[in-house]
Design a protein that fits this description.
Layout lengths: L1 H23 L6 H22 L1 E6 L9 E4 L6 H9 L3 E5 L8 H8 L2 E3 L4 H16 L7 E3 L17 H9 L3 E6 L15 E7 L9 H43 L1
Parallel strand pairs: 1-7, 2-5, 2-6, 3-4, 3-5
Antiparallel strand pairs: 6-7
Helix pairs in contact: 1-2, 2-3
Length: 256
């Protein structure tokens, strides 16, 4: 029932904010629009906690207003929402599948998002290059969020990390901040069901730009995947302990 109520509230909220943000996108500059997007993200995090019992815990230091590339694990539709709520004014790389949602394409264009071709290859590389060039002309630098795997993954699994994070780090001369998470255990991929618990977003030690693409990506993947597995194991242990406590309480009540 909680999942049903949350999904109704979430999609209703998303529809309302899509209209609001489309209106804000008509205003000069990005300030009002980004404020609207962050407001939507924070409201969604509140819904997660109040309706589903999903608490978001941040570990490490979010790189707010810093010229870095945030390379994050991607296992939930809520990943980007939580990141926007916790990191502030952040640019982001997203697939062109996002353009299929009404009004979203206009909003993405106005907020400066880097939209890449989901099929990869030369078109994706070129769109990433164009987006980086555009972000350089924004004035004050802001973090750029990218999901190196390029797709949502199941909890406990991963995909080969693509070169986008390395390319941006190398060409823009920016450190990469790896981010691990276990949010998929509370909000699995794009699924309807949601599960109570503490979702952790952990910012790891920054990686400095490197000319060695393969070594850089290997370390990024190793660090993010290892920490994500550790967070998943931590969640599973806490969830099991909570289930045992609730079961014991239920048995005790039955004996009274």
């Amino acid at each position: 029932m909680r999942s049903f109520i949350f999904n109704i509230a979430y999609w209703s909220l998303s529809g309302v904010y899509a209209i609001i943000c489309a209106g804000l996108a008509l205003l000069p500059g990005r300030w009002a629009l980004m404020h609207g997007i962050r407001s939507y993200s924070r409201a969604t995090v509140i819904l997660m906690r109040v309706i589903c019992g999903i608490k978001v815990e941040v570990r490490g230091t979010p790189p707010k207003n810093q010229p870095v590339v945030i390379a994050a694990k991607h296992q939930s539709w809520g990943d980007g929402i939580v990141m926007m709520a916790k990191t502030g004014d952040v640019n982001f790389v997203c697939g062109d599948h996002m353009l299929k949602f009404p009004l979203i394409g206009w909003v993405l264009k106005r907020c400066g998002a880097i939209v890449v071709n989901n099929q990869g290859g030369e078109k994706a590389a070129q769109s990433l290059k164009d987006g980086m060039a555009r972000s350089q002309g924004e004035g004050a630098p802001r973090p750029i969020l990218i999901y190196p795997e390029g797709h949502l993954t199941e909890v406990g699994t991963g995909m080969r990390y693509r070169s986008g994070a390395w390319r941006m780090s190398h060409q823009l001369d920016r450190p990469v901040v790896p981010v691990a998470t276990n949010l998929g255990q509370c909000w699995p991929q794009q699924k309807w069901s949601k599960f109570k618990g503490t979702a952790v977003i952990e910012f790891l030690e920054p990686m400095q730009p490197s000319a060695d693409r393969d070594a850089f990506l290997a370390k990024l993947e190793r660090d993010v995947e290892a920490k994500s597995r550790a967070l998943e194991a931590e969640f599973a242990h806490q969830h099991q302990a909570l289930h045992c406590v609730e079961s014991n309480e239920s048995r005790a009540e039955a004996c009274i």
